[in-house]
Fold 20266_t:CDS:1.
Amino acid sequence: GIYDELVNIVQRYTKKWYNVVNILDKNLQGREFIIIDLTRAKEDSLYLRKGWDQVLKLDE
């Protein structure tokens, strides 16, 4: 399902994929949309964001 697809994507980018998938899933269930901006460096705070301009914090 969609959860498995999310796991497959996130596993490519982090070793702590389980925590990240849970955070992403929680936001997606809340009808938020997530952007993984591959044109930005991973160190850029807007590399992973909620909506167009909110930083998505992975330590929520």
The longest helix spans residues 17-29. Residues 2-55 form one domain.
